[in-house]
Amino acid sequence: MFLFSVSNAANEYNRVIVPSAQQPGSIAIYPGSFDPLTNGHLDVIGRASRLVDHLVVSVLRNEAKAALFTVDERTEMIREAVAGRPNVSVESFDGLLADYAARRGARLIIRGIRAISDYEYELQMALMNRRLRPEVETVFLLAGEAFSFVSSRLVKEVVSLGGNVHGLVPPAVEQRLRARLGRDSSPAAL
Length: 190
Ligand code: PNS
Prior knowledge:
Blueprint: E1 2-7, E2 14-19, E3 27-32, H1 39-49, E4 54-60, H2 71-81, E5 88-93, H3 97-103, E6 108-113, H4 116-132, E7 137-142, H5 152-160, H6 171-181
Parallel strand pairs: 3-4, 3-6, 4-5, 6-7
Antiparallel strand pairs: 1-2
The protein binds 4'-phosphopantetheine.
């Protein structure tokens, strides 16, 4: 993924990192459920958007999986959060991710890794996607360590039990979580 050279002139390491993905017109897909977007996701979006010309954050439409927010609500929350990033767009998809990425002209799928526990599931998906579409490469990015414990599932649980998730999700997401799951709201799917 990266060409990487190190020189130690004058006891100083000069790292020259050339992102090979950064070719004119390079597109990457960052897929997920995003139910809802967290600051960990946003951190990965920031990192990925610096590596490619265009990043498409893609929300899976999956009728079979119960979600707290509708796909429209989730895409809207992500759009609000990435409004200041000109090379990031948001859309939804269904069917096979590998086919969608190929249709979209993307050579890269971005996934965030928080801890070793994410690895097994991610490895299986990446290898299956590679088998389906060898031309589409999966790239794993490390979310900032400040977010390594943050997941959509946990923030929903914490808010539903009256806890504070300030700083772990964007402010607009925090408001919507409180409106839907706060102690005064009616019960909803976690
Ligand atoms: O945020 P999530 O729930 O971990 O994201 C999972 C996602 C959307 C990346 C994965 O479920 C997916 O790619 N679904 C699309 C269907 C598909 O391609 N299945 C085969 C995956 S190898």
